[in-house]
Amino acid sequence: MTFATKITVTRICMVPVFCGLAVAYGLSVRAGDANEALRWWALVVFVTAAVSDGIDGWVARRFNQRSDLGAYLDPIADKSLLLTAVLTLALVDWGADGWGLPLWFAVIVFLRDTVILVGVRYLMAVKKRKFEIKPHWSGKFCTVTQMFALGWVMLKVVPFSPVWPCVVSGAFTLWSGVMYVRQGWGILKQPASA
Fold first, then answer.
1. What is the radius of gyration, based on Cα positions, of the chain?
2. Does residue 69 share a domain with residue 41?
3. Tens of pLDDT along 150-190?
4. How many domains does the chain have?
5. How far is CA 136 from CA 47, 94, 119, in A?
6. What is the CATH number of the domain that holds 1?
7. What does the pLDDT look like over 50-67, one tens digit per residue?
8. pLDDT digits (tens, 9 = 90+) for 3-54
9. Residue 31 — φ and ψ, nearest 5°?
10. How far apart are CA 35 and CA 25, in angstroms?
């Protein structure tokens, strides 16, 4: 196992740590005695895991440590972190009056990723071959806006409701989902031998 892959595996291991800290903080908020140390530790673990995504990619490219295992685990690590954070912060309030992500936002994020995953599997079955779904810039922007919404909730710096960044991120999430569906539809229309 390469060093880059070990970083990816470490990121996967950070996901339940973040979730545990986030839930513990939410429970302390519900009890009326918010333990801010738990919030900051959850934020540190989340940011460390998110930053490690760029580090493992850089290490893999810089030191020629690309591997099939790393290529397989990297998107699992990315989606595990993001989806766990979205679900946790939608189900556990991080402040008074429902300070967290709206449940509809979590549904949009999960729906988009499910449609993409099921669509890719369907295309592989129909086309009976490997093909590449090319990253679209809307997908990158979608991830950035989702991270922004998560940061809005976790940092608690701005007193405005987290609904507003979620509306913006939800729109980009839906839009990027449509772009990936269009790409998949184009692949589906190609002859199977292409």
1. 18
2. yes
3. 999 999 998 899 999 999 999 999 999 999 888 888 877 77
4. 2
5. 24, 33, 16
6. 1.20.120.1760
7. 999 889 989 989 999 888
8. 999 999 999 999 999 999 999 999 999 999 999 999 999 999 999 999 998 8
9. -75, -10
10. 6
Q: Provide the domain limits for residue 50.
A: 1-94
Exposure class string for 107-120: b at 16+ Cβ within 10 A, else e: ebbeebbeebeebe
Q: Judge if 117 and 49 occupy the same domain.
A: no
pLDDT at 45: 97
3-state helix vs strand vs coil in the chain, percent to 5: 75, 0, 25
Nearest alpha carbon to residue 154 among 49, 18, 55, 53: 18
Q: How far is CA 147 from the centre of its chain?
A: 8
Nearest to 78 by CA among 132, 140, 148: 140
Rounded CA separation 105/170 (Å): 6
Q: Which amino acid is at 103?
A: L
